[in-house]
Every structure is written in C-alpha cells, then in structure tokens.
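Action item from last meeting closed. Structure (347 res):
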C-alpha cells in the first residue's frame, strides 16, 4: 500500500534548543482537509514542536515533510508559499490597517517589486471574506480586540495560499464564545480549502469536540489519534488526571476526583436538565448514578421544578436554587449499628 504523501508528516523528530532535546522520536501527521489540534500540559513543549514544524528553529534530528517534500531543503520564500504561521507573539505593526496587514501575506508571491497585481488583490479580498473580517480591515490593527486581531492575522496567513496553516495558541486571550467561533472557523477553512490546519491550545474540552485529529503531547512523548480513540484508550486521562481532577469520558469534561465519594442520587429527566441537575447535585456533595439503589430520586416535572424523594418523604422544589439548597441541607447518612460494630472490631 502506498502512503498518502499529502499533508504534513514528521518522523523521528527531536526538538529543543541547540543540543538539548525537549523531545525525541516524535512521529505524527496532519492531513489536508482536517483540523489537527495539539494539546498538552504547560511546559510540555507544544510551542517548541510547532516552531520546529514551521522551520522557525531547526530540528535536532528527524525530518519534516509537507506534501512529500522535505521542508529543510526548500528556500525560505518557497516555504512561505507552502505554509503559513500565526504565533502568539504580539508584533507591533505600527499604524497598519487590517487590510494592509492581510496584504503582507502576498509578499512571497509578489517578487522583488512587492506590488500587488489584480490577482493578489483578489486573494486578499477572498482571505478577508473567508474569516469574516470585512468589517474590521478598515481599522488600524492596534485598535482591534484580541479576537478581531486573531481573525485578521488568520486572513494574512490565508493570503499566502498555503497548503498548511500552523497556529500557536490563537485562542489564548479570547473569551469562551470567541474560542469556539475561532476553532469552528479553522475547521471549516481546512475542509473548504483542503489544507492542513494545526492549532495548539490549552482548551482540551473544546479540542475534543471540534478536532478531526489530536496530538497529545506530554513529557513522555506524543500520542496521536482521533479524539474518540484518545479518550477510549485512556491517553487523555493518563496525561491530564491529577489527585484533584479526573477526566470524565462520557461528558468530555473534568470533574473533582473525589466525586465518587458522594451520596448516590438518581435523576429522572431529559437532557439538558439531567446533566444540569447532576452538576448542581455534585456541587452539593452528591453523585448521580444510572440506576437504583440511590439515597434520593430527583424527577424533573417541568420548567425549573423537581420532585425529590428521599428518606420516605416527597418534596417539590420550585427552582434550581431550591434544589441545590435541599441537596446541601440533607444530612449525611448515619452509620448503622452493624457498621459501627464492624469499625470497632477493626480497631
């Protein structure tokens, strides 16, 4: 079987500074038409890996190929026509407008004169439209918010017409809505333009929801696969679980690791009320179980109202706040005489 050479592929890669390796033996790929997300703990070397893949620092060992061509053997200007990079570093662009910044992306294509021809101008307009930045590019870049600036920088990278787009922490300073919008936009661009897009982020939960492919990097090395594969085989939990936090593969979120010690409650509700009730009860020291037996049954009866069955009593609560208040004031079950006797014998 002949390997598909399209996209980014690196093998036996050692990354670091001078002769000091941060990682060795890294192997992975990013396919055209897919969003690949690089995640890992702080200090894992994500930026070092991306900078090496972008040829901004040389590898200590190994090869990096794009569409079958070794990037180390390509002249810088040709390389800039094949891949584009957006870093977290805030570069002072002076008084440039958004459109002028996007137009800089055409530099690898314009030759010594630097003049933009009709096709260059059309590519700039297309890049601006692709990221939805038409209302931003008439303003100075210095006046833009972090989210707006990120869109303009992405348009500048698209203006290079690359086969591969690398972005280091593009959502670092964005609010939740802007982070979701940015990653969704990058996923759409990968598919619509059939290019590889590689993004590093600290937002693991968002990465698992939106990525086609995940690179999971920690001090032990690089694990690659679909989000589902890395969750099911335990790789995500192995990297991110701590004594205080545990990754829940069902919800794709982190929970307090001691949640299993809570009193069991059975929630009878449709989504999203079931998930929201489980979260509210967990804050009050309970844990939701899928079936009986349980210390309490909480049934959603419409709106924000619940019927609670506990210790032979039936209580109706009229709001989410009332549900949490009930859960907090219910005393923990007292040990039975048999349990107390067993404890005495153990001592």
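Sequence:
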């Amino acid at each position: 079987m002949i390997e598909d050479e399209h996209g980014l592929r690196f093998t036996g890669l050692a990354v670091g500074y001078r002769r000091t390796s941060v990682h060795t033996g890294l192997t992975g790929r990013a396919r055209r038409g897919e969003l690949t997300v690089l995640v890992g703990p702080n200090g894992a070397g994500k930026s070092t890996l991306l900078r090496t893949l972008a040829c901004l620092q040389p590898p200590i060992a190994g090869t990096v190929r794009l569409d079958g061509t070794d990037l180390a053997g390509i002249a810088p200007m040709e390389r800039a026509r094949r891949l584009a990079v957006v870093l977290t570093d805030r570069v002072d662009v002076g008084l440039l407008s958004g459109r002028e910044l996007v137009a800089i992306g055409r530099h690898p294509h314009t030759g010594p004169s630097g003049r933009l021809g009709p096709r260059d101008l059309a590519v700039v307009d297309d890049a601006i439209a692709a990221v939805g930045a038409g209302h931003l590019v008439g303003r100075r870049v210095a006046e833009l918010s972090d989210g707006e600036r990120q869109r303009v920088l992405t348009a500048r990278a698209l203006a290079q017409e690359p086969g591969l787009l690398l972005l280091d922490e593009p959502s670092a300073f964005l609010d939740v809505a802007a982070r979701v919008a940015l990653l969704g936009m990058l996923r759409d661009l990968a598919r619509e333009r059939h290019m590889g897009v590689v993004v590093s982020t600290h937002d693991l939960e968002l990465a698992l929801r939106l990525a086609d492919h995940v690179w999971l990097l920690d001090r032990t090395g690089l694990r690659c696969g679909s989000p589902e594969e890395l969750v099911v085989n335990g790789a995500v939990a192995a990297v991110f679980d701590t004594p205080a936090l545990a990754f829940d593969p069902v919800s794709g979120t982190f929970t307090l690791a001691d949640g299993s010690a809570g009193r069991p409650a059975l929630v009878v509700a449709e989504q999203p009320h079931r998930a929201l009730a489980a979260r509210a009860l967990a804050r009050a020291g309970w844990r939701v179980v899928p079936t009986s037996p349980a210390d309490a049954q909480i049934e959603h009866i419409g709106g924000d109202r619940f019927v609670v069955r506990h210790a032979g009593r039936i209580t109706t609560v009229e709001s989410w706040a009332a549900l949490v208040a009930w859960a907090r004031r219910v005393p923990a079950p007292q040990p039975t005489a048999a349990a107390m006797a067993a404890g005495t014998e153990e001592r």
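Note appended to the action item: The radius of gyration is 26 Å.
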